[in-house]
Amino acid sequence: MSQMSNKKKWKIAGLVFALFALAAIHNQQLAVTDPENTYINKISREFRLLLNPPENELQHHIIGKDISCEKGEELYKKVASATVIVYADKALGAGVFIEPQLIVTANHVVHGKRIVLILPNVKNDGLTQPGLAFPVDSVHRIHERDLAFIKTKKPYPYWLPLHEEQKSDQDLIVVGHPNRKFYSVQKAHAKQRAQFESSDYIFFRDNEVFFGNSGGAIVQCQGKLVGIVSMMTHYRNSEFKQGIGINSKAIAEFVKKVKHSK
Questions:
Q1: Is 181 helix (H, G, I), strand (E, B) or coil?
Q2: Gap between the Cα atoms of 76 and 134, Å rounded
Q3: Which of 96-100, 101-105, 158-162, 196-200 is least confident?
Q4: Please, how many CA atoms are within 13 Å of residue 150, restricted to the half-sphere of its CB?
Q5: pLDDT, tens digit, 9 for 90 and up, residues 116-167
Q6: In what order do the strands lie in the sheet with 136-142?
């Protein structure tokens, strides 16, 4: 009788161990394919929402991402209003209006012959969604940097001026369009801030750069545009993973050339 009982205990223990092992493997896969929804992140998100119950869909998204900026909803709407979706053949990315008829984005986002811009449809209490198409005049690629500019045929009323002062705050947010349904907002923390003045790049951590975030805005909590998203290094290694963007100082150096080009 005791032997049968022990066998059952071992079977149960083995089953529990197997379930934990499968969960650990699945969580490791999520860390690469869907890092926002690892088990730890899900638990942390639900805990934050429990402590700070959201009043609408947008608050749910911002609280869930642990955005520490004050007036997070206003900041998101401001940045999303100036952010466009960029389609290039089969590619998808984002771009930011920095003047009424000038968009900055990443060079690899416009890798294609046919470029289509989609304006944002900003919701009052929800996440911004794709809106109407907007006419493109010309595309200017900067091959020595992962940088490109798109001139539009008509002016657009919402844009973010470049903030060239490179003493960036540590807390940043990134707005992009990773999944074709809505505009995301991500938290980030600036790294290597001492190198801002001597470098063309901005480095940040605690952020997931998904496919579709490239070319998206990197802003301070005050809403100042300090760069655009380029890429993420060491994507499969959470210890060394970091985002890389082109900073506003470097972007500004090319703006005059592009504006006066034919």
A1: coil
A2: 21
A3: 196-200
A4: 32
A5: 999 999 988 888 989 999 999 999 998 888 999 999 999 999 999 998 775 6
A6: 129-134, 115-121, 83-88, 91-99, 102-105, 147-152, 136-142
**Residues 6 or more apart from 68 whose CB is under 8 A from it?**
171, 187, 221
What is this structure's pTM? 0.83
Q: Is-contact 258 102, C-beta < 8 A?
A: yes
pLDDT at position 200 is 83
Helices (H) and strands (E) in the chain, counts: 5, 13
Burial of 153 (0-12, 13-18, 19+ CB in 10 A): exposed
Determine the residue type at 82: A
Nearest partner of 78 among 222, 212, 206, 208, judged by Cα: 222
Please give the pLDDT value at position 152. 95
| C-alpha–C-alpha distance, residues 173 and 135, integer Å | 28
Q: Using CA atoms, how far apart are residues 215 and 201, in angstroms rounded to an integer?
A: 13
